[in-house]
Amino acid sequence: MVLVGADGSAPSLDAVACAAREAEARTAALKVVHALARLVHLPSDTVLPKHVRDHFHASADGLVDGAVRRARTVARNVDVSDR
């Protein structure tokens, strides 16, 4: 399996395309991930309201969905997942 992180930026989508080509060359699956960062200016014990957490998760899901589409465009025969 090839693992690649994506943050929605052009360089990260280039990395996704590169990883997709590498997975294709290795006949391997590709997994696309995104990490949510903790907001550093908030105390570590802060719990964000549910609607804010939901917004962050929806944004992350959208970024990963776009990266998965890019990977599938570059390497159509690769099993690409985000889970």
Automatic annotation (TrEMBL):
A Pfam family it matches: Usp
Coiled coil location: none
Task: Enumerate the InterPro entries for this protein.
Answer: Rossmann-like_a/b/a_fold, UspA
Q: Which SUPFAM superfamilies match?
A: Adenine nucleotide alpha hydrolases-like
According to the entry, every stretch annotated as the UspA domain falls at: 2-67
Q: What is this protein called?
A: Universal stress protein
